[in-house]
Amino acid sequence: MECAGVGLHSGAPVHLRILPAPAGTGIVFHRVDLDGFAVEAVSRNVARVSYATSLMKKGVLISTTEHLLSAFTGTGIDNAIVELDNLELPILDGSARPFVELIQQAGIRKQRRPRTYLRIRHALELHEGNKFIAVYPAETYSVSYAIDFPHPLIGKEMFSLELANGNYFREIASARTFGSRQDEQKMRDMGLIRGASRDNCVVLTKDGVENPPLRFADEFVRHKVLDLIGDLALLGKQILGNVVADRAGHAMHTALVSRLLRDRTLWEETTVEDQHDTLSQSPHSMAVQTA
Ligand SMILES: [Zn+2]
Question: Which among 9, 30, 67, 250 is annotated as catalytic?
């Protein structure tokens, strides 16, 4: 199961392959161009967070992890090896849909081991200027996001979702990343979007979209939900909790993850019995079926 493309930020060509992994592995990236050097998709390896979330271990970079990690959470995959031969994941169409389709083609296998969840016991709220992110106790995993973006097509948008019953695939997976023509030159000069094109992001003009149609009228806030789910995957476990974000970004998403992990009074690890009826997904650990 593989795909090829370019990194959004680096423009670097890359091949990516997803392989099955035993229960307890988590998500682990392997740089096959560097003797298969392994970088686990966990909070302690978070490196640099501005326009994308990147992991680094002993100087080895894995950049722009959020869309693939989001697809893993959305499809319920707990364990996988991801091989890549360059420093950044491919941007593909700018959404998580191609990754979800790859995972579905490979098939999803239920593993014998019950999934371990991170159940939120006490609220954690982070403020930064007018930005906000928090997580609250809940029996399921749900996400709520608000943005206020100064553009005639966007403005205030809000989206809430419970990760159950295929909601992720229907409502979130296809939402693409976006950027504006006005910021483009500055971003290019800074070397931040060497791989950007009209095929891999929604391009905003002063008062519209250069490459219509949008996939959803509120595609922008849906993409923020996609990114948030991908960054929260760095907890290394699925959450039972309600995450609320207002104008946050990758830096605040990953700050929430590291603050949570540091304070063990805020959560507990738990498994969920098969007969538990508040979850509509299997409480078993999951992996892809074939490579
Ligand atoms: Zn994104």
Answer: 250
